[in-house]
Design brief:
Strand content: 15-25%
Number of strands: 17
Distance between the termini: 145 Å
Mean pLDDT: 82
Strand order of the largest sheet: 9-12-15-16-17
Order of helices and strands: EEHHEEEEEEEEEEEEEEE
Largest sheet: 5 strands, mixed
Low-confidence stretches: 398-403
Shape: rod-shaped
Helix content: under 10%
Radius of gyration: 47 Å
Number of helices: 2
Amino acid sequence: MGTKEGEGVSGKYILIEAPNFNNAQSEAEAMSSYLRLGAVKDFSLAANPNAPKATGEDLACEIMDFIDDTRVREGCPDYLTPEVRQAETAKLHTKGGWRDHSDGNRVSTTRGDKVEVIKGNYRMVVMGRQHDVAGWDVSGGHVAESGITFDGASSIEYTTEDYNGTWVVVEKTIKGHVHSAYHGKVFDYYCGEIVESITGSEAPNQGQPNPVVTDRTWAESISSYTGSAALPIPSITNDTWVDAMTDTTNAGTMTSTTTAGAITDTTTVGTMTSTTTAGTIVDTTTAGAMISTTISNIEDTTIGTSLSTIIGMENETVIGAMSELTVGTESSIIVGMETSVNLSIQSSLTVGVDMSMALSASLSMVLGASLDIFLGLQINVTAAVSIDITPFSLELDGMKLIM
């Protein structure tokens, strides 16, 4: 029962065969085992997927080549052309040597050591009791795995373009669920032309959805360095698009230092709210020139004492109405010349004491009507020359000339 090894042989061989060792009543149920040393029985059956079941050649055809047959190796030591490598692989199933097959199980045990030395290539295929091929390929000095777990492609190639010749791994892997846990010391080091990391895409779909990314860190200390004084980074670009963004920082002490040749800061927002609560705020700005432009209605409220000191010239221009209300005592001290020019009607109302003191020259010019109303005590003290000019009056130290 079954096709027997040893029939139609050309060449020397040793055959150990156990045909139909399960005493089956039909060809389809028969199970055979054999070990053949020497010549191949029939070249037409070697690795033929349509060969009789007892030969095992329908399984042998799962391996017909090695990865190194077409691997890019130009320029590497001990280089063999693809033609030479492929010519040797073409004799894989017809060269003869050792061939065995069993329709049953194979169990091998070794109580001591086991040594296997393979001068050629090695390839293993495991089908998992169905046609889900997995395994590994050891050829050309490299080990490569394959399987249905990780979809994608991986190759090892030799290049002479980088580092005066080196082996490089070109890998594209599509992974399933991955959980990584590390205990101990972990070091990551990268060098080369490109390090690129991409998470998600602009066009997610049901098969490749965008993930939920969570990053949590607990540490004794965290240090982050980008570039150095010896070798700064030529350019850094940070581009963020988000519908809602929350940033919370809780720290005992924060120190921030920025040193740059030029800084451009642009903010475009519908509504902006900024709240600062502090015991003391010290803000120091040192600049050659400072220009501030605000196009908006402004409401500024200060609850507390306000002290403003300007060392230098101050120019203020108001185009429009201006109202100022002081509830309390107001003191104005001018050490130097004061010039006031009004090109329209001026009205001044004081309910209480109005005290004005000038310790230098005082010049007041009104080119139009002027109305001063005082409902209380008014004291004017001038300890220098005082000149008031109106269209019909000139007053100099108490002497009035009416024009």
